[in-house]
């Protein structure tokens, strides 16, 4: 029988693969070389670094991560040593879209401006960035895109230079992978030089990777008021985050943008599929049979005397109010990992029905574009 070592925090997985493998469950930071010496496969999250230090001298032939990102896997080492690896591209893209929607609507509410009057610069237009683009266009924002790999591959005029995006965007949101070298290097992509090019008074949202932004440069940009504010979900040196930066941020959350129950179910299903395909097991079509429903799936909104953005804000905050996660982190930053481990059920827009009373204006169409079911 196959031997599998799995992160014990991977949701929906327990009881699924025991018919095909002997499963050892461990916390991500306890998946060590000694623990996996006889393992054929690993199923992990971002907290397990898979490189020569972990893998050399083991029997591991497959690594599956339940996450979009795979910078915690030394893919070059794996490929040189015939270790198959797989990530879960796009698994939580709608979850991050939901997070960005809540962040944008919180920023606009507190700042007293309408999103339809603002320009959103999206850096990285892959699975996540494309959904954020759809969100922004539904909200009536002007959208500009920067994605050098896609621009090279597609020879498209839909993309703009980084310099132009930085100079004209009112809000900038990052959705790039963490690349530590090469033509598309993103490690400390936003450094002091980048911040000097940003339009003064702009906002920054980072749900990509903490290392994409130089922490000290970001703090300087906030102190100098080059930035009006920042919404930060990802941090350098997680879970040991920079406390002064947390206090300076407009919104500070513990790497949970992609933590919807739907996103978790998708990521686990994709990892199981890759594992089964790697070992020829007849189970690749599995999906969690029951994702927990939202506590209040029906949203009733009186549309009278409200504009479209106010209506959309009410609906989005009902599904996910970003302030709740912000408060949890600020109350006790040392519980960064505990907040993630004990994260409550969070369902995406499609799990909710909005009932609009009165004249919905264009809000109904906007909500449908975001994935809500709408009843007038």
How would you characterize the overall build of this protein?
The protein has 376 residues and is an alpha/beta fold. 36% of the residues lie in helices and 17% in strands. Strands 7-6-8-9-10-11 form a 6-stranded parallel beta sheet, sandwiched between helices. A 5-stranded parallel beta sheet has the order 2-1-3-4-5. The termini are far apart.
Summary keywords:
376 residues, alpha/beta, six-stranded parallel beta sheet, 36% helix, 17% strand
Intertermini distance: 56 Å
Number of strands: 14
Rounded to the nearest angstrom, the radius of gyration is: 21 Å
Largest sheet: 6 strands, parallel
Looking at the structure, what is the overall shape?
A: globular
- Structural class per helix/strand content? alpha/beta
Topology pattern, helix = H, strand = E: EEHEHEHEHEHEHHEHEHEHEHEHHHEHE
Strand order of the largest sheet: 7-6-8-9-10-11
Tally of individual helices: 15
List the helices and strands and how they pair.
Blueprint: E1 2-7, E2 21-26, H1 33-36, E3 41-44, H2 52-55, E4 62-65, H3 75-80, E5 84-86, H4 93-111, E6 119-123, H5 127-138, E7 142-146, H6 148-154, H7 162-168, E8 171-174, H8 192-197, E9 202-206, H9 215-223, E10 227-232, H10 243-248, E11 251-252, H11 261-278, E12 298-302, H12 308-319, H13 322-331, H14 336-341, E13 353-357, H15 363-370, E14 373-375
Parallel strand pairs: 1-2, 1-3, 3-4, 4-5, 6-7, 6-8, 8-9, 9-10, 10-11, 12-13, 13-14
Helix pairs in contact: 4-5, 4-12, 12-15
